[in-house]
Give the backbone structure.
Amino acid sequence: MQKFNSHLLKTLHVSNESYDYYDLTSIDGYERIPYSLLILIENIYRNVSDEARAQNMVEKIVQAALNGESPQEIEFMPTRVLLTDFTGVPCMIDFAAMRDAMKSLGHDPSKVNPLIQADLIIDHSVIADVSGCKGADEKNAQIEFERNKERYSFLKWAQKSFENVSIVPPDTGICHQLNLEKLSQVISAKDLGSQNKLAYPDTLIGADSHTPTVNGIGVLAWGVGGIEAEAALLGQPVSILTPQVIGVHMTGELSEHVGAFDVSLSLAERLRSAGVVGKFVECYGEGVEKLSVTDRATISNMSPEYGCTVSLFPIDDQTLDFMRLTNRSSKQVELVEAYAKANGLWHKPYVQKDYYQVIEFDLGEVEACIAGPSRPQERIALAHSKEAIKTIAANRGLDMDKTAIVHVDGEEYELHHAALAIAAITSCTTTPNPDLLLALGLLAKKACEAGIYAKPWIKRMFSPGSKASMLLLEDAGLMPYLEQQGFYLAGYGCMSCIGNSGPIAQDMQEAGKEIELAAVLSGNRNFEGRIGPDISQNYLASPAKVLAYALAGTMNFDFVHQALKHSDEGQVYLRDLLPSKEELLDYKKRFVKQDIYQRAQNDMFAGNEQWQSLPSVAADTYQWNEDSTYVKNPPYFEDFSLNMPQVQPIENARVLIKAGDFITTDHISPAGSIALDSEAAHYLMGKEVSPLDFNTYGARRGNHEVMMRGAFSNVKMNNQLAEGKIGGYTKDFTTGKISTVFKTALNYQAQGIPSVVLAGQMYGSGSSRDWAAKGPMLLGVKAVFAQSFERIHRSNLIGMGIIPFEFIEGDTVDKLRLDGSERFSIPAIDFTQGDFPRKVSVRAKRENGEELSFEVCARVDTPTEGLYIAHGGILHYMLRKL
């Protein structure tokens, strides 16, 4: 890092040290510019060496902020990149493959190396195989290591062989909670060898959708596709359009028995309807001061569910208090305060910024709620939840009187539709929040004292995001009550939220064939087919509400009018058991201490004996094991040439997938269990892997053979070409028969036939899953036609050289009468030209010979993205650049 644009530098004196910094207050009207845009401006001044070019980009941002001008391309260079093991393994495998390619081209392979800090946290692989008993966490951790030893050995090689790679071993915590509690510094400082250090905002991108969690402490961070993260690590700036910033003006304060997770679900409903996809959101106003930093982090965490890129809370006194609580040094806290106040980043609740749009949000109007059965924005008021469940059943044609019989510990139980099969306290959304955890623990205590317990047929698990969460409940004396309710520690990881719930009891699996079973979790994702293959309805709720539904045993319960217990002493309702604000405040004062974070953070990077004993030797290139079913050299650079490919049209492409609205990345590239009758299962069994050792698609992301077979194979995937078959099936138009997506794609490729996808609204919503683009690319998909795209997935498609096309407003697959049997031709587009056409005419030839022509918009939004497409993807672009 060098000091560019030095005429803008000023000096800040803090704790007997001097820091240079780029002065944002010198910009005319800086007080009216949203906080997030000020951080982008600082980033440009610090990273763009050409002063005229830097100033031009800054003017674009200022004009967009103050005058509402149309978005234009700017560059952003994050300080750090955050990775999970699910995203980190493929990232490091891609780097290893690039090193092989460099070596084969006669160049130095060590040139392929992260240039900025990569923090990789192993948190997505632990599965709740064991739950509901003492020692479940240790057993699950042991199973995790046995399954993933090969992957973890590879990661240790990567840590030793690449620079700037830091790995947090398994069984430690979730990346977003550890990032919040430990890794993020809010304001960074770097010694550049001159008299003063350079101070600047800590910024990052993460190859996981919920990276905005740290927006809660004022850190500008967002989720990107894994491919885009790889490019950033190799020194390529993130190309973005000047964002429109939505201001959420928060007033009032939360009512009794209403928490930050209720705010998140309410905002998901509100902001989705407002249409904030691709926009920045900033929360400001006097109501923000009533929210703790962990409340803010809970709200920011769900930015992907709102559709926005970030949900930033500016720095204030609450930020400083949280930094002290989590053992950031006093010197660091003083730097954050001094920098933010001197440089326009300190929250001034009554100063009105120039936002593209302002949404008024009264915290006092938020009510207790849940969301489901398949999307986070499907908010249901808790007071009306039973009525909503009945409406869902009616819409699905379910007979609520239908029953299924299950046996547990010698007892027989009669279950109905919406009976709970899984109740999980999980995820980075809620477990960093002491208020939500204490409310859970106190409810468990009061329920035990009242003799009310969770129903025995429910699989229950507790998987917090860091050891600080567990220590808080233990120190407060509440963990024994949670264990009495069956919520034993299952491990430190994402678990249910990523689909790692593990199997439910055989009786419950059979019941799931007769009635629709439900899951309730304190996470952020409830897409169909994600939480468990036997679960049909998935609901999001705060930790205390997860326990409350576990006490009821079903989602079809009215907590206002139905008692949880009837006895001679009277009836006990949920309201009788919920802790008051005063009780929560008392417990917080007594037990939320620096000590729990200090103990949790001790030896965070060391790992246990199993991790330490993994063999690994640093080397410029990786020694691939041809027999491996976990780590394989991907084929991206086979026959690679330093010459950029010639511009070619897409001619006579067949439709591989025809889908409806809201196809998620879970549909495109599942992360959960591998079905026994799937193409991936057949591949693994052919390699003599037992079904017990299949692991998950997420854990197999280092093996392209598994992942390309898993593309579009989610058990809930409804491909309209498959004539009623659900899962990974399609119609092979060369044979006229229904076959698997994988076999059909290979057949098309063998005949030189390109493939396309037809879809509706918000194609690719959900997780920032690079394999949702890599898999289709390996299957021969050249373009996707949709009404709209989720931001991260659109970026991932471009990163793998697949062109995202949006129908012109008003056009849809149905309106154009496209049944999927057509053959599509798209003219050659020279994306190397910055003024490449955004509107393209597509020809579709029907089976009867009739031809249809219609226009689409190429959602290649910037000239840089155009270069990625022209090169065949980011990886090829970066390799040629290196």
